[in-house]
Amino acid sequence: TFDIPVSGTMAHSWVMAFPSEREAFERYAELYPDATTFLVDTYDTLGSGLPNAIEVGRRLAAEGKGFGIRLDSGDIQYLSEKVREGLDAAGLRDARIAVSNELNEEIIHQLVAAHSPIDLWGVGTHMVTGGNDSSFSGVYKLAAQMDAGEFQPRMKVSDNPEKSTNPGIKQVYRFFDSDMSPMADLIAFDDEQFELDTDYTFHHPYTDFRKRRLRSVTRIEPLLKLRMRGGESVQPPRRLQEIQAFARESLRSLDPTYTRLLNPHIYKVSISDRVKSVKMEMLQQFFGSP
To answer: In 10 A of CB 82, how many CB atoms?
Structure first.
């Protein structure tokens, strides 16, 4: 429409949709041999992403094709240097390094000043919103994949704990106190059931030790509702005024300590025992048992 060429690289969900990272890279290189950029931080940037990219990249180079590597998390300065070292040692000196992840002028200036070996800059959020303007970041990651007629959990692993996703098809449950004010949200699998008069453990979504027990619950409400099935809407569209009214009412239900501008309390969003257990099991399978 605006005569602006569209380009991009692979998504984490692409890598997660294949049995292995190597297979994801190989298939991508087959589809886009003239525009291949490997996203190497889905699991372990230096431990698996870089070695797999080098192996597939060597085949492209042998065919006279160029390729690149994209870094989207972690210490960009350190990782770019290590990636450049690895590529050069493999004889792939022409391979490009692209970086992304909430880049702004200050971050780019710091990386340039440090002579980080970066060829391409992927600026998104701050290109659209500018400096102090607020933005609401949204990402898409694969959570489950159909295998032999059943959904199997999938997750992205990252050096940044907050970027490691929660596996499986999930539902979010809101727990209310006696004043019908929300106490906390719990991310659980969609087949989990929760009852009143029962104490539940709420686990911190990023760490493996912080948790708390929630008591005196008077209401539990599932928040996620089915909107699409098979690419088709199953609900009539809601008018903008309805959506605005729903958002205002939801905010009003929160205790004022959560919505005040100065020193607001942090509203807790946790994961259930089962989600925690599956997540830790998948992490141990990837990293190995301690």
So the answer is: 16
Look up the domain containing 51 and give its range. 12-129
Structural domain contains residue 121: yes
Specify the number of domains making up the chain: 2
pLDDT confidence bin for 133, thresholds 50/70/90: low
The CA distances from residue 288 to 143, 146, 282, in Å, are: 21, 25, 9
- Three-state secondary structure readout of 213-258: EECCCCEEEECCCCCEECCEECCCCCCHHHHHHHHHHHHHCCCHHH
CA distances from 50 to 38, 43, 44, 47, 102 (A): 9, 11, 8, 7, 22
**pLDDT on residue 28:** 96
The Cα–Cα gap between 246 and 264 comes to: 22
* Type of residue numbered 119: D
Q: Report d(CA 13, CA 76) in Å as an integer.
A: 21
Q: Do the beta carbons of residue 50 and residue 19 sit within 8 Å?
A: no
